[in-house]
Structures are given as structure tokens and as C-alpha cells.
Amino acid sequence: MKTKDHDKFADIDKALKRLEHSISKLPEIDVTEIADKVKTLRRQLYNGISRWESLELARLSDRPGANEFINIIFNDFMELYGDRIYGDDPAIIGGLATLEDIPLVVIAHQKHSAKKRDYIYHHYGMACPEGHYKAIRLMRLAEKFDKPIVTFVDTPGAYPGPEAEYKGQAFSIARCISTIASVRIPVIACIIGEAGSGGALALGFGDRVIMLEHAFYSAISPEGFSSIIWDDTSNKETAADILKGTGHDLYNSGLIDYLVKEPVGGAHNDPAMVMEDTKGAIKNFLKELSSMDRKDMLDARVKKIKGMMPRD
Amino acid sequence: MTEVLDIAKKDGRWTECPSCKEIIITEKLEENLWVCPHCNYHFRLNAARRIVITCDKDSFAPLPIFAADLDKKGGSDSYEIDNAIKGGMARIEDLSCVIGVMNFAYRGGSMGMSVGNAVISLMKHAKMSKKPLVMFCASGGVRIQEGIWGLFQMLRTVQARNFTMDVPMITVFTDPTLGGVTASFAALADIMLAEPGSSIGFAGPRVIENTINHRLPPNFQSAEMLLSQGFLDRIVDRHQLRNTLAYLLRWF
Ligand SMILES: [Zn+2]
Fold it and tell me: Cis link prior to A103 (omega < 30° from 0)?
């Protein structure tokens, strides 16, 4: 289903390209007007996209995942495995890296490795308790050595399976949220794709939050919302409009600090541009947070969480 | 005979146990704290009844944010809070505490902005008055209709708990407690108790069955399962709950 939805965008995009090409081959008549019209069409196709379509872009298998962001932004990532209690959860990856001489800790949801479509291995980025405990121990490591944390969020939600419940899924999420809200070091969260429910929140908060415009942050997926409220998933578009989870929505609500613009058609059409922008934002925020008095930074974090209520 | 039964069930004199299907005289059930005398099934309780059977007689005093005057129709918020969660000062075996009781009967006990605010103010009040906090939880999770604001109540209540960690907190999980409530403030208590047979977990059973494509065992996500997995301190029969809470309040 995901591939088909992707094709829909890709096909229209290709058709527009062909049209542009044909127009450019018609020099004897004045084509600027037609060319402008095509340009407008293209902009409308993506600018006017609905929230549901935005989420479709966030779910594309071609969309750059956390490890691509990490490898391009940091280039010396050393992955550290395991929760030091029970096991290693490939749905959450983490480790050490530096960003222009600043050593830091990176923690991220990993849906699949670049190019390899190993979704099953990574559980589609849906973490089990091991993943949350790995995140917690890495946050504590960062705190102990006074290094900032950068997270990347890309998950439909925490893993909804029996094994996860047997190992106390809810308890692990609560402790992960408690840790990310209380570590005494700067935290920057980047919402790059899907960000569903408590599983997303486990890594989805920081002193500064960066979000891609077509990423989708919500309490539940629109399909889940639709099936709870209307008993089947057919109202997912309406549900997406009620959930209001796109980057633009959250930016307008004051819940995120920086909105990363995506190229026409989504982040996969120009990953380098998106990552450059994200990297710049991370760098600026790191500079800003590290120059702040630590107590002031933590006080500001308290205010930020308290103020997470609608403005009106 | 069945007609008589139906009439008696309808007017509330008799109640059928959903677990063993025995017909019980409602008055007797009430006397037995809404626990089935045949199979020990613990009926779900609304917040008002829970307060009556848990607190010393007439000791419950609602906090101002819960006691908003409903007649004034002062906005939907006070109506919402009054129905979704009750909270205030109380005494249990003469020991005072702050008590909060979530109401599953109202919108599935879901946690939206007003419930989040109520939980936070209970924590603050417990800290200010230096009293332990007893939270009776019952919830299907986050209030999804509030979208991202509902989800962020998990973060807001967790932070409130982070800042009141020195306040002794007891969570009593009742049937059912799932999703964003289990996965936030409720799981950060010092002592975690549950009533027998309560469903406690993160993902709902239907969602899990969809993931694995087959039925779950009957005790899945039960208090008993969680106890054996090491996530609960004790399972406490409703008849022993006052005793147990009093023991803990004395101990703190
Ligand atoms: Zn029974």
C-alpha cells in the first residue's frame, strides 16, 4: 500500500517533468505563460497537500532515516549497543559522535538501514523496553560526562506486542520520558518522520525541538483514531485533520522551535538540503544552549513543559 | 422466572456478575464492596463510590480545582474535571493523605488537558501539604481527541512527578489502566498496588492481537501477570485495601 501511495506522487511528478520538457521544446510560441502555469501546478500539488498526504510522505520507504541523518551530520558515529540489563533493541540505535569538535550522544529510532530494507530486523522503529532502557542508559552516560544529547524520532509508536508487555513496556516508557525531561545537559530532539504516541515521546522532547515539515507527531495514527472513533479506518483523512500533527501544525502551536523545509515532493527528493538545514539548526541550538547558564537552561525547560497548552 | 429476573436486574435490585454470571442481590454486593462473593470478581467502581469505600467517613474534602461550582456553568473545564477525576484531602484509618481517583466511566478515564492539570495539582498539593499521594488509576490512555495536547499530558505529569519525587506516592492500578496513563505518572510511584484481575499495560489487547494475528491468553496484561513479571509490589483485595494503604501511610 505504501509503495502505491508513493507511486501516486512519483507519477504526477514525472508527468509534470515531461510536460515541462515538452514546453521547453516549443520555442516558436511564447511559452512562459504555460511554463508558469506548470510551475504553479507543481507547487499546488505539494503545498496544498493534506495532512494525511503529509503523513504518507513521512512514511515513504525512500525517506531518509535516522542513520542517514546521523552519518551525514556527524560522520564519526560510533554505535553502542545494549541496555545493560537484558538485550539490544535494533529499533533504537545510539552511540557517540562529534559535531564540529563538540562530542555528544546520539539516540534515534531506526526503521531500517539505508538501502537495506530490513524493516523486520529493526521492528519498523517500534521500540521494546530494551530500546527504552538503552536510551536511558545512554542519556545517563551523556549526563555523567556532560555531553549534549541529540535524538532523532521516526517511529509509528512503541512496539505493540506481547513480549514488550511482558517486559513492562509502559514502565519503560514512563522512565524514558522521566529521564529525557530531567537530564541536566542540553537535549535537542529532531522529529524526522512518523512520531506516534508514547513511543515517540520517549525520545521526542528536548530543550530545542527541530521538526521536518512533513513529519507527523501525534497521540495515535489517523487510522487508529478513525477505527476508535468511527469503527473503521476509512475516515483517516478527517482523523489526520483533527490530530493536526504536521511540522507546520506544531510550529504554529509553538510546540517546536525550528521547522525544516522539505523540497517539493518530500525530503527524499533532496536529502542533502534537508540534512544541511537540520545540521545548521542543531549547531545553532547547541551553541545557544551551551552558552546558557545550566540552571537557567533547566528552568527554561520546566517552563517549556508547563507551557505546553494551547495558546487560546 | 427469567422475566422476574430481568425486571429485578433492570431496576437494579439484582446484579449479574460479568465473570461467573451468578445473580447477586445488589444490596449484598454493595455491602461486599462490589466484589462478587462467588468468584471474587472486582466490579469497576466510579470515583465517588471508590472514595466512600476507601476514605474514613466524611473525611474527603475536594481540592478547590475539583470543587468548582457546577451550577455557575463556569465553562466545560470544571464539568470535565468533576466527571473525569476526583481529588482532595482525605483520611484513611485516621492518617491523612491526598487522594486522586480517575473515573473510567467518564470517557474511558482518558487523560486530556484537564485530567493532566488535575493530576499535576494533586502532586503539587501533596508536596505543599507534605502528605503522601494515593492515586487510583483507571484509564484507556491519552485523550486522543485532543491530539498532540493530549499526548503531551504524559510529559507534563511526568515532569510534575519528577519535581515531587520526595512526596511518597502510591499508585493503585484498577481495571483497566492502559496506554499513556500507565506509561507516565502512574508508573513513577514509590509503591505500586493493583486490584486482583485488573488489566494493566501499554498497548490495548485488540491492537496487540492485530500485531500478532492471534488471540491472547486470558491472563494477558492482568495484575497477576505483572506481579509475576516483577512490575507490581502487591496485588491487594478490595477488602484489604484500606488496611494496606493505612499500613503504607503509617510507614512513610
Ligand atoms: Zn462472580
Answer: no
